[in-house]
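Dear H.,

Thanks for agreeing to be a second pair of eyes. The structure we're designing against is below in token form, covering all 360 positions.
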């Protein structure tokens, strides 16, 4: 890998990471940072369903510049905005490589096609990488058409969390993947070390070449696919005062996370203030919560959120899965939400919001 100072006016390679919700895309991307040469500049363009900028917060303190595109999917709703975002990253950072992390239900063809169209603007599509969650792949492959497409149209399949399943179960997962895609290389991730950048950078993909027309690349079944496949609940609660004490205890919240269905609730991520006792005093702490298929982490952060309005945020969480209406009462009870705080209902989206109350 050569840096931009070594190669002047060369097109910026773009690596696209796809993979279903909770597959571990962000963790693998972050694990690349210590394994690239010193001075090699990476930028991440991150796509999320909701409006919670969790991964920007996780990346703070690293050398990774992150830009997040929210409230839509890059392959359909936001596809026209991707060009502007890539140009902004190029002008602002002049990176050696840009990584695009798609939402969990993104079909790669429209994304790849638009990157190829940006050749004259100084971009080249290097590879499409699909991350497969070896624990849960057999559960969601039957409910997500785009999860199958992600495994079929890719340069490399990364087998993530394979160390958490038996050899027999891993063989079954690989058999299912081979039914979709026999020839594509399948690489085991190295636990928390992810994968070597030498294995996924410099592919120079031929997938979705411009020889094909855009209309031929976009399958009509992906229209509104994120609504047809994924239910979404967004929870935004605010403080009643400037008190730093949160009504949510860390123990209570962990019990709630552990009670969630592994089959229906795929992903929960966001921010929450939690209280726990320390030296006989109640201490409140802001946490990043990252939950996927029953496994979760709570990462403490020593700062407020970026937006000034967010100073009063008590909880800001996005929940993704299927049949979430069946779990709505459990979620409301676990997060201490009542019926009056539901302000919007859509067919596949429920927004629970308590607006910031002005202080005297």
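And this is the sequence the design step returned. I haven't edited it by hand at all.
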């Amino acid at each position: 890998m050569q840096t931009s100072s070594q190669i002047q006016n060369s097109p910026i390679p773009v690596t696209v990471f796809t993979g279903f919700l909770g597959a571990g895309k962000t963790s693998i991307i972050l694990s690349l940072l210590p394994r690239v040469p010193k001075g090699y500049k990476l930028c991440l363009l991150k796509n999320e369903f909701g409006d919670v900028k969790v991964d920007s917060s996780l990346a703070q303190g690293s050398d990774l510049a992150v830009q997040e595109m929210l409230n839509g999917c890059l392959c359909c709703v936001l596809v026209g905005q991707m060009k502007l975002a890539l140009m902004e990253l190029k002008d602002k950072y002049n990176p050696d490589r840009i990584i695009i992390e798609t939402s969990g239900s993104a079909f790669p063809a429209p994304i790849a096609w638009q990157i190829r169209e940006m050749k004259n603007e100084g971009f080249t599509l290097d590879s499409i990488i699909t991350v497969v969650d070896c624990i849960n792949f057999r559960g969601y492959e039957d409910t997500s058409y785009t999860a199958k497409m992600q495994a079929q149209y890719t340069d490399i399949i990364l087998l993530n969390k394979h160390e958490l399943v038996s050899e027999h179960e891993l063989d079954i997962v690989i058999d299912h993947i081979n039914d979709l895609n026999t020839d594509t290389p399948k690489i085991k991730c190295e636990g928390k070390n992810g994968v070597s950048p030498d294995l996924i950078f410099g592919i120079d993909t031929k997938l979705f070449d411009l020889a094909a027309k855009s209309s031929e690349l976009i399958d009509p079944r992906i229209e509104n696919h994120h609504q047809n496949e994924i239910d979404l609940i967004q929870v935004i609660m605010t403080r009643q005062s400037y008190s730093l004490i949160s009504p949510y205890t860390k123990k209570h919240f962990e019990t709630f996370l552990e009670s969630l269905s592994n089959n229906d609730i795929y992903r929960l991520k966001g921010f929450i203030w939690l209280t726990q006792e320390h030296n006989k005093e109640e201490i409140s702490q802001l946490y990043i919560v990252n939950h996927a298929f029953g496994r979760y982490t709570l990462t403490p952060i020593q700062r407020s959120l970026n937006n000034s309005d967010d100073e009063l945020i008590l909880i800001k969480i996005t929940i993704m899965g299927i049949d979430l209406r069946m779990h709505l009462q459990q979620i409301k009870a676990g997060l201490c939400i009542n019926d009056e705080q539901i302000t919007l209902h859509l067919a596949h989206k429920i927004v629970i919001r308590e607006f910031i109350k002005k202080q005297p």
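Two observations from my side: Residues 342-348, 355-360 have pLDDT under 50 and may be disordered. Residues 231 and 284 are 31 Å apart (CA to CA).

Warmly,
E.
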